[in-house]
Amino acid sequence: MRSQATTLYPFVPSGPDFAAALAFFSEIGFTQVWRQEGMAGLRFGGAYFILQDIDVPVWQKNQMITFEVDDLEAYWSEIESKSLPQRFPGTRLRLPTDFPWGRELHIVDPAGVCWHVRQARQPQ
């Protein structure tokens, strides 16, 4: 095959409250770039996804998505200061942790989707 994929745009369920999901993703760095009935395109630097106004708990609680940031500690500092679990019920945060593939933190959004936010390990 000669043609190559250039970008992947996953669809992510909003859970029961689409407006609250849009507000949540704005708080973690995403900007709405378009919106139509029942969905919106969200971007954070080079990361992009389509938020879909749908509530399917079995899907939401089994979906994981990863995006990379250039400074995980700075991102964590900003996220932690926003009191997201208190403001968006169902949200959970996991401290930055080292793994063999790099350092990452986890954000479970209000719908139950687990976001892995990572910073790649530097070659040694």
Describe the model:
- With 124 residues, the chain is of the alpha/beta class.
- The chain has a single domain (11-120), classed as 2,3-Dihydroxybiphenyl 1,2-Dioxygenase, domain 1 (Roll).
- The chain contains four helices and eight strands.
- It has helices at 18-27, 57-60, 72-80, 84-87; strands at 11-13, 31-36, 39-44, 47-52, 64-68, 92-99, 102-108, 114-120.
- The strands form two sheets. The protein has a four-stranded mixed β-sheet, with helices on one face.
- The longest helix is centred in the first third of the chain and has 10 residues, at 18-27.
- The radius of gyration is 15 Å and the shape is globular.
Outline the secondary-structure elements.
Layout: E1 11-13, H1 18-27, E2 31-36, E3 39-44, E4 47-52, H2 57-60, E5 64-68, H3 72-80, H4 84-87, E6 92-99, E7 102-108, E8 114-120
Parallel strand pairs: 1-4, 5-8
Antiparallel strand pairs: 2-3, 3-4, 6-7, 7-8
Summarize the structure.
With 124 residues, this protein is of the alpha/beta class. The protein contains four helices and eight strands; from the N terminus they run E-H-E-E-E-H-E-H-H-E-E-E.
